[in-house]
Amino acid sequence: METANAQELLRSNLSRVRIPEPTNRVYKSECCISFDNPRSEGGLYIDMNTFLAFGKDCVGWNYEKTGNPVYLHIKETRKLIPEDRPSKKPTLLAIGTEGGFDNNEVEYEETYSIVVLPGHVTFPFPSVELPEKVRLAADAILRAEGAERKEQLSAWTADTKKVSAHAMDLKQINNGVVIPPAGWKCVKCEKRDNLWLNLTDGFILCGRRNWDGTGGNNHAIDHYKETGHPLAVKLGTITSDLEAADVFSYPEDDSVLDPLLAQHLSFFGIDFSSLKKTEMTTAERELDQNINFDWNRIQESGQDLEPIFGPGYTGLVNLGNSCYMAATMQVVFSTQSFSSRFYKNQALKVAFETAPADPTVDLNMQLTKLGHGLLSGKYSVPAPEADDVAESATSTSMKQEGIPPRMFKAVIAASHPEFSSMRQQDALEFFLHFLDHVERGNVAKPDADPSRSFKFGIEERIQCTSGKVAYNRRHDYILSLNIPLHEATNKGEVEAFQKAQKGSEGKDASSNEIVRPRVPLEACLANFSAPEEIQDFYSTALRAKTMAIKKAGLTSFPDYLVLHMRKFVMEEGWVPKKLDVYIDVPDIIDISHMRSKGLQPGEELLPDGGPETEAESNEVAANDDIVAQLMSMGFGHIPCQKAAINTLNAGVEEAMNWLLSHMDDPDIEAPISKGSQGGAEVVDQSAVQTLISFGFEEDVAKKALKASGGDIEKATDWIFNNPGGSGSSDMDTTTSSSTPTADTTAGLPDGGGKYRLFGIVSHIGTSTQCGHYVAHVLKEGRWVIFNDTKVGVSVNPPKDMGYLYFFERINN
């Protein structure tokens, strides 16, 4: 095109060019549809109207969708280093900085141009011949802090706390106070949640009252105003990772760091500094010593691993303690359900066309982007090496750069303050959070929901001393298993080793010498199904508390069964301990015997209680011990009560499972009203009609409004959180007036009980909130290790050291 005509083309589209303001998010590091970046073959195109970035293959789709024709093109080209370049003598003791040692990193040169679509008419930039508005807009885009960088910085900044000015010389008063590990309550009221321990006098007081009346009664801050005692730590946030504890300074009115927190806690009997002298911390010390051993075993360090490239073998860049997410997603996208939904049956262009104006905030778009990035093989190629006089080691040429899942993390973590941070997280919690969001995103089309392939039903049969029974049913994504150490197959060797250690005069055994208990997976599964006594069970037949027997089973078998090994236990002294144990996991398991049988002939169901009886049950049924133990883990009082009540005081494990699956319920913090489960509740018919107009059934709408106090928005959230609400709710207790044959597994996958192990997520470290996660996946008949960007053939997969085990049902 002639120069004059080209300039006229650009001027005719100036109305579609905007100069970014400081509040605008500018993307210039990565395509919002693919993982192309300025270093990719076609570079990166920034839409000069929306400031979204697109790779070479995607920019045309954006033009077709938006009509925006003007783009700033950024291309980074690798610099060629002359072979005869002399080695620079370092003048600084540093690497990769001017004057320091050469770190052999590849260097790139940036070039810019202005491109007008659809003809890809190109103008050099910078150039005085460009219209002033284009020059100003391009300069502003290049100067702007990239949106990706902003999000990363905000995540780090959110975690930054300052050391309190009152910590180092804090005066503590000896009141003879010793803080127990559980059962706390405010000394001025009866509140048992949102409690703070004043580090000066040991008073336990409730926190601030929120604007909506929730929270505490302001007793902690009132105490500060009366006494001037400056620092308090929130109970339930104290673990062996003291930096993660929530310490608040009232004079500074902010969360702070207390470098002497261990000393200040020990003053009230929570003595971290002396733990190494106790028998329990000897085991902790051994565990710390063995972390290096675990690290080497799980990461297969020292093994000559063969790197793998191609479709399905793409690594994920660690964004800063994001290995929990990387390991989980590598296994998830190895399943047929997720690979089909977001790769084989979902084109990038289709996902973009159906996405909102900003595709970076759309979960479907970002999951499709991640699926194509991981499975297409486009980004699973050897990373470029720096050309230098000295030849690079051959191993470096076999590395891959991997893909950075920044946009996916931003979307999936948007509603979760912990996952939004740069701190390490629990892979199990992330997995459940992820599946919950996928399910919500597919509520209108459940048949296309890949999360359902993990979902199954659990049924608990409870029989009290009256002889009558109740059936408690719920849905879950994971089977959480306790580890019965008494079932270890090598108890004799373990006892002999422990005896030898006691006589070794304090000399620690080497990593290879330590004998760990070996517990068969079959024993863990049997423990789940074994009969269990329930004390203080409220029987509607006897109208009193009594003893009952509980037995659990599965009402359906999912396509993919996820087993969670409970390796972390809370011990005396507030110390979370990781069990140093091996689990012998076979490649094939059969859980057919775990299928529940439902109501049997001759069984009589426990009667429903009348309004008075049910109200009495709600008041007294929550077992104080269960509630206290849950609260000691940091949960609020009301949710803990609801967990105990809704699991019929079956135990801490059951209540914890209920809590984890209901923490996002809109009414989880709502007070438990007397008689709320008995008697008829009147709902606003106009609100019912509104929900019906949204496409929900009438009975579901009524249930949602009852559960949400008549609030339409909360009721909508309730329906999304309870997709089984059209039956009897996500959790259903069958009693005499219920339909015992009600199908609570309708729509869930089901089949035989034979499964094959195909994925392992392993954890290295003393806590799920620290350390490192690695995935091993069975692909094409061989085990593959996914360790962030490192992908290779596994030589010795750590099948006995997993935290999460993924099994695929074997279909006949």
Automatic annotation (TrEMBL):
Keyword Signal annotated: no
Catalysed reactions listed for this entry: Thiol-dependent hydrolysis of ester, thioester, amide, peptide and isopeptide bonds formed by the C-terminal Gly of ubiquitin (a 76-residue protein attached to proteins as an intracellular targeting signal)
UniProt domain USP: residue ranges: 314-810
Gene3D superfamilies, alphabetized: Cysteine proteinases (3.90.70.10), DNA helicase RuvA subunit, C-terminal domain (1.10.8.10), Zinc/RING finger domain, C3HC4 (zinc finger) (3.30.40.10)
Catalytic residues (UniProt): 323, 772
Name recorded for this polypeptide: Ubiquitin carboxyl-terminal hydrolase
GO MF entries: cysteine-type deubiquitinase activity; zinc ion binding
UniProtKB keywords: Hydrolase, Metal-binding, Protease, Repeat, Thiol protease, Ubl conjugation pathway, Zinc, Zinc-finger
Family: Belongs to the peptidase C19 family.
Stored InterPro entries: Papain-like_cys_pep_sf (IPR038765), Peptidase_C19_UCH (IPR001394), Ub_carboxyl-term_hydrolase (IPR050185), UBA (IPR015940), UBA-like_sf (IPR009060), Ubiquitinyl_hydrolase (IPR016652), UBP13_Znf-UBP_var (IPR041432), USP (IPR028889)
Region of interest (Disordered), residue spans: 717-748
Occurrences of domain UBA (ranges): 621-662, 682-722
